């Protein structure tokens, strides 16, 4: 009975929480069960009956409401644009969102209407994203355009542990395909579509002009950061700058979010309230705070519009507006209810926000600050009180968002608290308000705007310089493994215990127990991995013609072969979205040996990311032509380096060793810019794994077969690309693998070649492009293989 009374008291005090939980449950059911309309048909009457029989459970009615708002259309009319995937077509539609500037080129968000194929106009529906190699100037929201000679492809995922679900991310926004064209000559604009608002269209043109002016007259990266903070165009910020801000724990300041909209709200609210208090008439007759809240919503809306009405900005506008409405209504005493109401409105508007990191971080941070205020009230009377409040709010927000940041980025920003204490006030009180004022001035004259932009650029330069200084501190950021579900529960239990210990002294006695349990849960996976006695090889899905192999050695060491291919694909760079995410998900923060089988620009650029974000023990490269950035990092970090051309074998510890097999001495590379062919053979007891570079080259394959013959024999063969020519069957015969892993398998040559079909008959085939990451384990005598999500499991003895 006592528990029931506590729950009743909680729901009466926080009335919005049960409906919010019901709404979230409906959204989650739609996400993980599918068939939302069938579930709605069942859930709606069931929830209605329960609500009639048990009024305290009326919040269950919000489960079918969550399903309803998160469900897609009941039926789709017309032909989907994805029906033309893989064909070269002309595509006509309207730009439904402001084009996004990238480091090179642009991204256009197109709501399609027609596909022109073979001179025939085909009505279609669906949204697509078109990338251009060059910037597409002059386009804005509402423009009707035609894209010439584009080939669409469906959005797919890298199917690896820890990979970001990019397909689901875009599906929630109604985007199902992407395309690419070289330059703006392939994009024809017909001007504004009449169905789009002329006011928003004109405002977007102003945003475009402002962004181009800043980009033309001021240097990068400061100009791109100002555009990000003022007009919401953050696509041009260089990746290395983003990485530095992430390491310092202040990446949130680089894009328009709750922080920036909140900054505008605070600044204008304080200014308007101060001005209103100058009037004795208003002070005596009205509640000035409520009038200030009403008037602040106007500049808040204007900033959201200037930021391009992007989703995070609109979410922040809704959240802060709900808080202001609570002030206007005189119902702002229970801020947790207000926060819950803001979340409820946002999830009704965009249910998929529940799965977005920016939404989770924003609400978690505000919740943490409100909770801290509840236990340790904030004061603003003296300068000391204000400093203490700044520390409390920063610590509270950092603590609550810690698991999200760790499990999303795998980086512990040790300098996060001081960085936020310094940079957040700088951004909130100076850079963002000055940026908005400069935009307003720009609408009058660029000459009036120039001084304001210059001052903003100066402060941004100070911010970038400060980040650089903080990151020079040893161990300013540390790469750490993600937390398990148990670890997250213990972490929050630790936080709650700390809060309760401040009010109830006896809780301090269980603090050490919870802290020890949390540390043990975090350390257990590392200890477990170090005690493993087998060899594990993971062949990652990295896209066409790309190879990433990760070896976990007996006793805890590891080897990463390639993984540094820096190429933009599927909403991110390969080394970040594939290698980086996989390593962090696997709890790896140190790469004992990094092997680069090629020294081309993309491999070198990606390798720099790995050296910057992971502790690398040694580097082996296929050639000595390293670029300055990578070579500088190797020397700066004092990392041992060798050329694979100078070594024949590398001991990997225990009974594990690596052999480097090269073609005979008379083999000559036709193109000196191409990497030297070689095979890498990793042997553990009686089993071995063979991979290498240029194994799709017939001459290299023949030379390796002639030179090494039976020495190539291995239980596992990995070839990212297989050319089914005359050299491959002989090479396959020499290797005699039991398992063959490839990045893309074309079955037609096998079906048409009886000899090849017979040779492959005893071999188990795996295709990472179709089956995702393949994991192979061996104890030195037996082999077991498993694909991503356990779709295919094989045990060989």
Q: Could you give the topology of this structure?
A:
Elements: H1 2-13, H2 17-33, H3 36-53, H4 62-70, E1 79-80, E2 88-101, E3 106-117, E4 120-125, E5 127-132, E6 143-151, E7 153-154, H5 166-171, E8 175-181, E9 187-192, H6 198-217, H7 222-231, H8 239-247, H9 258-276, H10 280-285, H11 288-306, H12 311-328, H13 335-349, H14 357-375, H15 383-409, E10 411-413, H16 416-442, H17 446-471, E11 477-479, H18 485-503, H19 511-530, E12 535-539, E13 548-552, E14 558-562, H20 574-585, E15 590-591, E16 593-596, H21 601-613, E17 615-616, E18 619-621, H22 628-636, E19 641-643, E20 649-653, E21 656-661, E22 678-684, E23 687-693, H23 698-708, E24 716-721, H24 727-735, E25 739-744, H25 747-751, H26 754-760, E26 764-767, H27 768-771, E27 774-778, E28 783-787, E29 793-796
Parallel strand pairs: 1-4, 5-8, 14-16, 15-17, 16-18, 18-19, 23-24, 24-25, 25-26
Antiparallel strand pairs: 2-3, 2-6, 3-4, 3-5, 6-9, 7-8, 10-11, 12-13, 12-27, 13-14, 20-21, 21-22, 22-23, 27-28, 28-29
Helix pairs in contact: 2-4, 2-13, 3-4, 6-7, 7-16, 7-17, 8-17, 9-11, 9-12, 9-16, 11-12, 12-13, 13-14, 14-15, 15-16, 16-17, 18-19, 20-21, 21-22, 23-24
Describe this protein's structure.
- The chain has 797 residues and is an alpha/beta fold.
- It folds into five domains: 2-70, no CATH class; 79-194, OB fold (Dihydrolipoamide Acetyltransferase, E2P), CATH 2.40.50; 210-479, no CATH class; 485-529, no CATH class; 532-796, Ribonuclease Z/Hydroxyacylglutathione hydrolase-like (Metallo-beta-lactamase, Chain A), CATH 3.60.15.
- 48% of the residues lie in helices and 19% in strands.
- It has 27 helices and 29 strands.
- Strands 1, 2, 3, 4, 5, 6, 7, 8 and 9 form a nine-stranded mixed sheet that branches.
- Strand 2 (88-101) and strand 3 form a beta hairpin.
- The longest helix is centred in the middle third of the chain and has 27 residues, at 383-409.
- It is globular.
- The N and C termini lie far apart (61 Å).
- The model is unreliable at 568-572 (pLDDT under 50).
């Amino acid at each position: 009975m006592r528990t029931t009374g506590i729950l009743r008291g909680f729901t009466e005090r926080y009335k919005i929480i049960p409906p919010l939980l019901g709404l979230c449950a409906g959204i989650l059911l739609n996400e993980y069960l599918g068939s939302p309309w069938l579930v709605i048909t069942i859930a709606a009457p069931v929830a209605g009956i329960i609500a009639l029989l048990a009024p305290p459970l009326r919040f269950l009615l919000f489960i079918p409401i969550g399903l309803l708002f998160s469900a897609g259309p009941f039926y789709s009319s017309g032909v989907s644009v994805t029906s033309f995937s893989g064909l070269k077509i002309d595509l006509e539609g309207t730009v439904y969102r402001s084009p996004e500037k990238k480091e090179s080129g642009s991204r256009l968000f197109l709501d399609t209407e027609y596909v022109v194929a073979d001179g025939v106009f085909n009505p279609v529906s669906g949204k697509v994203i078109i990338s251009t190699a060059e910037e597409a100037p002059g386009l804005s929201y509402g423009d009707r355009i035609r894209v010439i000679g584009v080939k669409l492809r469906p959005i797919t995922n890298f199917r690896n542990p820890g990979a970001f679900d990019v397909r689901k991310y875009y599906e929630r926004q109604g985007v199902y395909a992407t395309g690419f064209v070289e330059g703006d000559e392939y994009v024809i604009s017909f001007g504004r579509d009449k169905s789009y608002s002329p006011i928003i269209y004109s405002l977007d043109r102003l945003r475009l002009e402002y962004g181009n002016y800043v980009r033309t007259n001021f240097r990068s990266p400061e100009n791109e950061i100002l555009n990000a903070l003022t007009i919401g165009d953050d696509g041009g910020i260089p990746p290395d700058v983003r990485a530095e801000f992430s390491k310092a724990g202040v990446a949130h300041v680089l894009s328009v979010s709750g922080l920036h909209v909140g900054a505008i709200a605070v600044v204008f609210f304080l200014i308007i309230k101060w001005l209103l208090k100058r009037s004795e008439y208003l002070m005596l007759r009205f509640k000035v705070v409520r009038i200030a809240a009403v008037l602040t919503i106007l500049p808040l809306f204007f900033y959201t519009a200037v930021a391009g009405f992007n989703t995070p900005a609109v979410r922040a506008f809704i959240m802060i507006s709900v808080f202001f409405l609570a002030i206007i209504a005189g119902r702002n005493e229970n801020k947790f209810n207000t926060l819950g109401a803001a979340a409820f409105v946002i999830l009704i508007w965009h249910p998929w926000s529940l799965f977005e990191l920016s939404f989770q971080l924003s609400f978690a941070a505000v919740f943490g600050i409100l909770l801290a205020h509840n236990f340790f009230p904030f004061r603003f009377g003296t300068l000391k009180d204000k400093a203490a409040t700044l520390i409390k709010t920063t610590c509270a927000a950092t603590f609550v968002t810690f698991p999200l940041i760790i499990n999303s980025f795998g980086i512990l920003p040790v300098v996060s608290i001081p960085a936020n204490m310094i940079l957040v006030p700088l951004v909130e009180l100076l850079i963002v308000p000055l940026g908005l004022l400069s935009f307003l001035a720009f609408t009058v004259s660029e000459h009036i705007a120039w001084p304001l932009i210059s001052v903003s650029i100066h402060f941004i330069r100070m911010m970038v310089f400060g980040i650089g200084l903080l990151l020079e501190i040893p161990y300013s950021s540390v790469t750490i493994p993600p937390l398990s579900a148990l670890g997250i529960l213990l972490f929050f239990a630790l936080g709650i215990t700390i809060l309760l210990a401040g009010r109830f002294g006896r809780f301090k006695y269980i603090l050490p127990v919870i802290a020890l349990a949390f540390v043990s849960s975090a350390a257990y996976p590392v200890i477990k991995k170090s005690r493993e006695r087998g060899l594990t090889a993971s062949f990652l899905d990295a896209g066409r013609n790309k190879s990433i192999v990760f070896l976990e050695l007996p006793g805890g060491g590891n080897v990463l072969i390639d993984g540094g291919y820096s190429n933009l694909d599927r909403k991110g760079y390969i080394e970040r979205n594939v290698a980086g995410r996989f390593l962090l998900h696997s709890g790896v923060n140190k790469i004992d040996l990094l092997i680069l089988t090629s020294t081309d620009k993309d491999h070198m650029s990606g390798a720099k990311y790995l050296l910057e974000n992971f502790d690398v023990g040694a580097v082996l490269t296929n050639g000595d032509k390293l670029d300055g950035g990578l070579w500088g990092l190797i020397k700066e970090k004092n990392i041992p380096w060798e050329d694979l051309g100078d070594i024949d074998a590398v001991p990997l510890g225990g009974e594990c060793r690596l052999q480097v097999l090269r073609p005979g001495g008379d083999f000559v590379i036709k193109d000196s810019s191409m990497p030297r062919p070689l095979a890498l053979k990793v042997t553990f007891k009686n089993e071995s794994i063979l991979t290498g570079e240029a194994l799709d080259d017939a001459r290299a394959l023949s030379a390796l077969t002639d030179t090494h013959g039976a020495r190539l024999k291995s239980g596992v063969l990995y070839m990212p690309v297989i050319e089914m020519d005359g050299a491959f069957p002989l090479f396959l015969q020499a290797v005699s693998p039991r398992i063959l892993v490839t990045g893309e398998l074309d079955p037609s040559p096998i079906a048409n070649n009886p000899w090849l079909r017979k040779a492959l008959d005893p071999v188990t085939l795996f295709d990472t492009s179709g089956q995702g990451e393949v994991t192979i384990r061996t104890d030195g005598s037996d082999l077991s293989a498993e694909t991503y999500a356990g779709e295919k499991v094989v045990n060989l003895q």
